[in-house]
Amino acid sequence: MDPVANAKTPARLRQESLSKLPTTVKTPMYERTDLTPGIVHIGLGNFHRAHQAWYIHRLMQQGLAHDWAIVGAGVRSYDAVMRERLLAQDCLTTLIELGPNGMSAEVIGPMIDYLPIEENNAALIHAMADPATRIVSLTVTEGGYFLDANSGAFDFDHADIRHDAENPNQPRTAFGAMVAALRRRRAECLNPFTALSCDNLQGNGTILRNCVVGLARMSDPELANWIDRRGAFPNSMVDCIVPATTDQLVSQCRALGVDDRAPVSHENFRQWVIEDAFCAGRPPLENVRAILTNNVHGYETMKLRILNGGHQLLANVGEVLSVPTIADCMKDPDIVAFFRKVQFEEILPHVEAAPETTASEYLELIESRFANTAIHDTTRRVAFDGSARHPGFLLPSLRDALASGSSANGLALAEAFWCRMCAGIREDGSEITPNDPQWESLNSTAKASKADPELWLEQGFYSGDFGISTQFSNAFARWLTLIWQRGSRAAIAEYVANGST
């Protein structure tokens, strides 16, 4: 049955209008008035609603986890727009699944509130200090963890971190707010909450522990020791392709019968692998096929390098060549040849098999997901924040390739495409507007690198092995020069034809 053809006049999404939605749209079977909070989630964007919130919703549909409802939170001024939209529809979200054979819609309701966005984060601190809060989860992006570009360690010298250390009761950052809440919990003889990162970082729980404990130690070493000893920071791996919301998606949602001002689309695939290390209880996530394990590393390495790294292989050159979406990149014979050659020769050899799948089997799955034309995932969205994504997703493979003495020629080409993209103009002459928190610096360096490629490699991203590797620097310079002189397709053709060097 086609849900669009059977849709009624769109009903404005609110709790009282759920019964008016078309029968083709699934709705919560639980009484939302019976839900009580257990999770505070910071950084409540599309991915969280399509992924973590969906898992909690599925548990609630089974009659479980009604005391694990989600309270949304943000620490940046722009979060206020999403807060207003979601509160206007009682924190309900329409999820639109886009599969190869059509679309379907489901309204989920595990979120019951969205905290005010305040400069001193007072409401957030109060909510996290509440004994009912047992998990504080985050999706603040890879660039939101204040990691030093050179070492990857927590940046104690960042202005916002110094502010939070000097003003612990009026923090600016999510981590400062977490420390303030944990200070209150300790003073009231409460246990810490579990801090759960859901961002695409290798060892994200370990990184989050370093951020929170490190910041606490700057102002209160005893509190830092208590958090480190009593708290929990599970590592996790999250996976689902979730495009940005567009006007077209809002219209599609209306065609399905739901007037939702902030719907979310997603592919027909999800995975959540979590280290089973919680200090204050957890929902029974294994009941909805989340993988609870003490060995997250294998899953996350495979996903970060093959999927997230693969996204960067496609998106940067796709932007330069004006290819609008990831699915379009997978239909472009030149781009997909480049993608597959780098994957098979320079990424997969350095990725160990995860339980129940090999690296090559996982790549086959990724290729089919990327090729899903129903997912309008733009190259611009995927290319965003390359200054965090390249160090996290591609440079680890480059490091392993150089250490083993194997080819890194295609990875050098990938870095040249990133540099070319950051110059801010496509090969057809159209402008690439700023798309990175460090865009101003990246843009000026990329333009200067046209004449002197070494300038790009002098940035902190390439410290250590990369900067001193003649193999890598020579390959990068050769590719960047070729791209500027003859174009991206000529560079791909030479790489594909001449093999690994």
TrEMBL record:
Q: Which domain of life is it from?
A: Bacteria
| Family annotation (SUPFAM superfamilies) | 6-phosphogluconate dehydrogenase C-terminal domain-like, NAD(P)-binding Rossmann-fold domains
Alphabetized Pfam families for the sequence:
Mannitol_dh (PF01232), Mannitol_dh_C (PF08125)
Name the InterPro entries for this protein: 6-PGluconate_DH-like_C_sf, 6PGD_dom2, Mannitol_DH, Mannitol_DH/Oxidoreductase, Mannitol_DH_C, Mannitol_DH_N, NAD(P)-bd_dom_sf
Q: Is the Oxidoreductase keyword given for this protein?
A: yes
Which residues does the UniProt record annotate as the domain Mannitol dehydrogenase N-terminal?
38-286
Q: Which ranges does the record mark as transmembrane? A: none
Q: Which UniProt keywords apply?
A: Oxidoreductase
- Please state every residue range assigned to the domain named Mannitol dehydrogenase C-terminal: 295-477
Record-given protein name: Mannitol dehydrogenase family protein
